[in-house]
UniProtKB/TrEMBL annotation:
Keyword Nucleotidyltransferase on entry: yes
Keyword terms of this UniProt record: Endonuclease, Hydrolase, Metal-binding, Nuclease, Nucleotidyltransferase, RNA-directed DNA polymerase, Transferase, Zinc, Zinc-finger
EC number: 2.7.7.49
The organism's taxonomic lineage, starting at the top: Eukaryota, Metazoa, Chordata, Craniata, Vertebrata
Domain Integrase-type: 53-94
UniProt-recorded name of the protein: RNA-directed DNA polymerase
């Protein structure tokens, strides 16, 4: 369910004709109605998807997260050749390059092991003009929050 929602969202974003903004909404904040309703729908879909993967096989995990062969082999302790075969047989991944670009940035060997963080100013947010952006280097998960200052407590 969640993958189809993300694919629909991706299609809509690629077809856009005006600028857009994507934000993380904290569920316990007093934001107006439509924002919280969309957040509730996203949370419900994410919970259903995660709960359906109680003990995933490498095939199930890859069909959901589309991780590369190296990450799949490390996560499940399978040979790299077997992990590569799983990735090559995936219709979604075979349409895209799965190579990870090399560089100087470290990459975690597991989820939540190495994070990179940056703060940038975004004046249109008025009092909440600082964006704190954190990226999990293993999965590429991006988490951004608006803040009132550059440092948080």
């Amino acid at each position: 369910i969640l993958l189809s929602l993300f694919q629909s969202l991706q299609s809509l974003i690629h077809a856009r004709t005006i600028p857009y903004f994507v934000a993380h909404i904290c569920s316990h904040q007093p934001y107006p109605g439509i924002l919280m309703e969309g957040n509730r729908i996203a949370d419900t879909a994410a919970k259903q998807s995660i709960c359906s993967l109680s003990s995933p096989t490498p095939w199930d995990s890859h069909s959901y997260f589309h991780q590369n062969a190296k990450a799949l082999a490390q996560q499940f302790g399978i040979p790299k050749a077997e992990a590569a075969a799983i990735v090559q047989q995936c219709p979604t991944c075979s349409a895209h390059s799965t190579a990870i670009p090399s560089g100087v940035n470290p990459r975690g060997v597991g989820a939540l092991s190495i994070w990179q963080m940056d703060v940038t100013r975004y004046p249109p947010f008025a009092a909440w003009k600082y964006l704190h952006i954190v990226i999990d280097t293993y999965s590429g998960f991006i988490y951004a929050t608006p803040q009132r200052g550059e440092a948080t407590k």
